[in-house]
Structure of Aspartate aminotransferase:
Amino acid sequence: AFANIAQAPEDPILGVTVAYNKDPSPIKVNLGVGAYRTEEGKPLVLNVVRRAEQLLINDPSRVKEYLPITGLADFNKLSAKLILGADSPAIQENRVATVQCLSGTGSLRVGGEFLARHYHQRTIYIPQPTWGNHPKVFTLAGLSVKYYRYYDPATRGLHFHGLMEDLGSAPSGAIVLLHACAHNPTGVDPTLDQWNQIRQLMRSKGLLPFFDSAYQGFASGSLDADAESVRMFVADGGELFAAQSYAKNMGLYGERVGALSIVCKAADVAKRVESQLKLVIRPMYSNPPIHGASIVATILKDRDMYNEWTIELKAMADRIISMRKELSDALRVRGTPGDWSHIIKQIGMFTFTGLNQEQVAFMTKEYHIYMTSDGRISMAGLSSRTVPHLADAIHAAVTT
Ligand code: PMP
């Protein structure tokens, strides 16, 4: 039946790692994948995660029963608190429906499916550019995807004017996807003042904010600072969706731990929303996995472990920030033509270098450096050892 099935292309992001793995060169560097690496280039399991896992393993009361459709109750409460703030009025007033989902992607998908089924507007505006999976997730959820201007290649900064104009002309009630912090792939975020203007515009037009929070704490090193955009939209009493991922900030990538929170106007609405989320989830995967959510709940509910986590999280964020500095210094030393100040200014895991597709192909061919074709490099995959090699490659790419 499938003899003539077509070969599908590799995923544009995960495919970079496939190509990297095939390259026998000893000097190869993988700056494609969005996963943290240590200075030695190794994946990192946080100490606090190891500790939590030990506690779980040694607790004989832990069994492997199914979780409810909505996931681990403690995990959901603590996750809402983490993103919305411990003193959030929405939480105190019980107007938040939170469900545990399969990491950030699963949370976006469940939110998208819920909207397609229950919201009067099917159009979702996503930034241009955005994480490559966004348009696919929302299209397959049954929404119609449109773009709003976000990045200005001329300034390598935010296209604020274009963003405001595009959201200003969006149909009333449209859904708007916002990266809570550390916009992927550009590393460009609105300032707090700009966020506030975006908020006012969206509220005045009744646009529905859908926050994607994949990097809380990972961008600035502060969990609170990285959630300010979301909390601003909670403080005005309005509705919003928030998809959270613990992949980066707890290093739980493969455990697939995340949460979708829907902030409603009233407690009874949140209750009914939750009942409908169950109908979305049950036929998709029945209920979510228990292990990763138990790790997160163990850490978030213990003051001591929570503090240990924030220290380890900040160390990851700081290492990334120091890689920005080292790369920018290395280009300055080489006298590489062009303005590279955006390497320092951009935020989060990635630098959107501004290198074009040919330059990227050149760097891969001649220097065995792997990255997505849009010129995005993962700063978390760099180390003091590999920075000079990358700087040489960039220098050669822009001068030859
Ligand atoms: N949103 C954005 C912006 C991301 O960068 C990512 C991870 N690359 C995700 C969502 C989802 O990741 P995960 O499903 O692994 O949590």
Q: What stands out?
A: The chain has two domains: 14-44+319-399, 66-301. DSSP finds 15 helices and 13 strands in the chain. The longest helix spans residues 303-334. Residues 14-44+319-399 form a domain with the Aspartate Aminotransferase, domain 1 fold (CATH 3.90.1150.10).
